[in-house]
Amino acid sequence: MKIEHGFPEGQRGEVAALFWQAFSGKLGWLMAPEARALDFIERALRPEHALTAFSDTGTLLGVVGIKTWRGGLLTGDFPDLARVYGRLGAVWRGPLLDLMDRPLGHGQMVMDGLFVDRAARGMGVGTALIGAIMDEAQAQGMKEVRLDVIDTNLRARALYERHGFTPTGRKDTGIFKVLFGYHHATTMSRLVDRR
Q: Domains in the chain: how many in total?
């Protein structure tokens, strides 16, 4: 397995499909139908904010998004939404997507999604991507890496805990829990090693 910065433009659709595979349960109703969701995700992806795991033969295994003050992995705006969903569709989707935004603190890097192909789960890809984002945070002089994990994704939370992330807060979905399919997201963080 090898980890690379970004991903080739030719794999944009594959990365979008992998993102959708991982997050459609959380975003499905909001971004449906699937064809439009994939179109929007593909347009909004920013490869420069990704660390990507490939097999030795070049197969895409997983991606971890990086969010800093420079931007994040998925940074579509109102015009991007309107191109895919029409103006009316963008008007109601935009504010709901904004509810999931995670502001940055000083010296923080946010894990902007970690997603691994179903066929590659349990093979250490997530662990390798966590190691890669911690190394990247150190190289950029960050103090900590932060993430949010939803209450229905216990497997991911256990992975993060095994790798030193600890809970630091909680964000309830409130009246939107029926729409988003989860009750709350736990914010977790890990300090960056200083070598």
A: 1
